[in-house]
Amino acid sequence: MSAILLSLPERDVTDVPAMLRNLADKVEAGEFGDAHNVAWVIDCGNARIEVGLLGQCGELAPTLHYLLALGIRKVEDAGT
């Protein structure tokens, strides 16, 4: 399994709903292959963080943890 870090254009980053629609359009257009899963983290403000997983998986918690860990690794490796 491999992961691709999505680069969001800086100009639209503050418009979260618009960026999510843009991401959905790209998924629907096949830019991410079959796009089996999407792991998400939302900073709701006031020290509240929500996480979740969309897609096809047998085990929610292990799959979510694995995808988030892969994302962290991608971010860490991007600086090298």
Please describe what this structure looks like.
By secondary structure, the chain is an alpha+beta fold. The chain has one domain (11-78). It is built from 2 helices and 2 strands. It has helices at 16-28, 60-78, and strands at 37-45, 48-55. A hairpin with a 2-residue loop joins strand 1 and strand 2 (48-55). The mean pLDDT is 88.
Spell out the blueprint of helices and strands:
Layout lengths: L15 H13 L8 E9 L2 E8 L4 H19 L2
Antiparallel strand pairs: 1-2
List keywords for this structure.
80 residues; alpha+beta; two-stranded antiparallel sheet; 2 helices; 2 strands; 40% helix; globular
Produce a short descriptive summary.
With 80 residues, the protein is α+β, with helices and mostly antiparallel strands.
Helix and strand content put the structural class at alpha+beta
Largest sheet: 2 strands, antiparallel
Multimerization state: single chain
The amount of beta strand, in percent, is: 15-25%
